[in-house]
Amino acid sequence: MSDVVAYELKGRIAVITINNPPVNALSHGVRKGMQDAFARLNSDAGADAAVLVGGGRTFIAGADIREFGKPMQPPGLHEVLDAMEASKKPIVAAIHGTALGGGLEVALTCHWRVAVASAQVGLPEVKLGLLPGAGGTQRLPRLVGPKMAADLITTGNFAGAKQALAAGVVDEIVGDLVGGAVAFAEKVVKEKRPLRKVSELTDKVSNIDPKFFPEYRATLSKKVRGFLAPMHCLAAVEAACTLPFAEGMKRERALFQELHDHPQRMAQIHIFFAEREAGKIPDVGSDVKPKEIKSAAVIGAGTMGGGIAMNFANVGIPVKILELEQAPLDKGLGVVRKNYETSVARGSTTQATIDKALSLISGTTSYDEIGQADIVVEAVFENMDIKKQVFAKLDQVMKPGAILASNTSTLDIDAIASATKRPEAVIGTHFFSPANVMKLLENVRGKDSSKETIATVMELGKKIRKVPVLAGNCFGFIGNRMLHGYTREAAELLLEGAMPWDVDRVIYNFGLPMGPFAMGDLAGIDVGWRVRQGRGGPPEKHYRIADRLYELGRYGQKTGAGYYKYEGRNATPDPVVQKLVEDTSAEFGITRRKIDDEEILYRCMLPLVNVGAQILDEGIAIRSSDIDVTYVYGYGFPSYRGGPMFWAEQMGLDKVLAMIRKYEQEHGSRWKPAPLLQRLVDQKKGWAAASKAA
Ligand code: T1G
User: Fold this and answer.
1) Is the whole model's pTM more than 0.70, yes or no?
2) Which residue, 290, 363, 360, is CA-closest to 326?
3) pLDDT tens across 429-465, in order?
4) Active-site residues: which are they?
5) Which residue range is the domain that position 361 belongs to?
6) Mutate to test the pocket of ligand 1, among 4, 20, 23 (most ligand atoms within 8 A of CB)
7) 283 CA → ligand 1 middle, Å
8) Cis before 644? omega within 30
9) What is the pLDDT of residues 6-15, one digit of tens each?
């Protein structure tokens, strides 16, 4: 028996244990060990049945994702599952932790499945740009029917043990994992039950309403715009309902191969590993123990403050929101309650869940009441003087050892820390609006932020179900510094000949949730105007259109007009804006020209790459994949393109440099290529060569 798969008799039941930490992925050694174990089971006169269980913290969590794209070493998973299904003796899966992807497919090929109450099951391959490629799309519908199978497989969501039991994915919930599974296997043997093969079940996949799949496909295509995998997942589930099992397996295999060979799979798996890499800080090793965060406080009950507070309450951390006046405090708490009630109305959570969360959120108008919190997050107006006043006050009232965090989106963390006597406890924790929804947490280290402070907010990010990334301290950190390059170029395109709706269409079709001008209308043209006033300096030509919209009182959605005119949230191009844009070009003596979609795309997207390269070179980002994670989870860059840096590298950094050089010729120094980009192209290297990770 291989050392990753153990075989041990308990009475007359063989317990086959997978020991491949951390998540028992189905690597080559595991597949080989399983194949040997099933052969041994069927030749072992001392064994009447087997239990298959994961060692450590979980059942099998899927195929080994690191093996994708490499030559597969036999036996393949199909071969192993065929051996399982051909077993003459019953095999019972014993599930704890998570049975995911290929892991659940292994369990579905077993004759029965038991689980502990805390177990979860799922087929999350779609999140990797794939589909369940070892019979999951053919077996799951045979157990639960096409609707639940399609829901689980096209979203990659997990189901808890109770839900799995009710749906028939699991046959029994046991208290003691191995003991319960062995007892179940002994019962099966004692009752001489015929082997139950999921592949032979038919009633749940017969006589399906002919409207089901066309209607499901129409709804799904709107939800997953641009992603290939979800539609392939649905086609595979449909095959389970229209073809015999063997044919369905062939259809699944063909659909899987198409996805496996597609750039979207490479991009989504890049993001899978990138978000985990982002949690690794070279000079903050696992020896640095994060502080435990048992209570929190938030300064400011505005949109951001309320959303930030919800993140703590949602994971059971009591949080106090402070406003100096009762009225804005009551208003802010009211918005939080409304957010929760909307989620219940949408069915995305339950009343009991939000009641629990709301019970953990309280308000106060006195700094004296927040001093015992383990962390305080300042979310007041984006103005340095105001932030310094707040931090001076926090320095007085917060208990020793508390973390003093700022939600600033651009400002200098060291300047903020200078208002305190404990700069080692100060750090940026930049949330993205809406703070209770957006996954990215951009933590920003100051020059004096201690390793413990950094480790604590990185750990906290995971605890509050965010994707944490650590940035160095510069104007705009990683995300907003790149955003500045992008929005500036979009503004230039308007002066040269494009209209807001031309640019937004191209960026939307590329896969972002909205283009820069729709985003400007959402965030508020007045907000951008105030930030520019705060920065001072002469008015800049490329902001002239935005300034004129502001002067007209066209702040965006909030005033019913901005770059677009609005009926509710429905945006339509506005002839008033068309004329304003044309007049502004004329004001600067610019002869407008037709700008094609390709130029719009590259002029908007390449600044992300060029600024990203500069950020990487300065060490503001530890690695290029941190930049990808920032842009995918903070700004909606499509994960099926892997993030701006991955997208550029797939295109070829030499091609990217050539385009940037061309734009430098045409538009001047703002297009000067980042020196790092030039160096990497000269050295024929990729971004990894510039990583600051050890
Ligand atoms: N393969 C390889 N490594 C994996 C892995 C996998 N499937 N899953 C996790 N890891 C690594 C991860 O990179 C990290 O490494 C460590 O394990 C801990 O992970 C044929 C084709 C199971 C819920 O998509 O969702 O099966 O950073 O930090 O937060 O149809 O890992 O320590 O070096 O995430 O406790 C389908 C992916 C695969 C599940 C645990 N399965 N994994 O979360 O730990 S495709 C998945 C997860 C497939 C078949 C198809 C989570 C988790 P390192 P972690 P966690």
Assistant:
1) yes
2) 363
3) 999 988 999 999 999 999 999 999 999 999 999 999 9
4) 105, 125
5) 296-471
6) 23
7) 25
8) no
9) 999 999 999 9
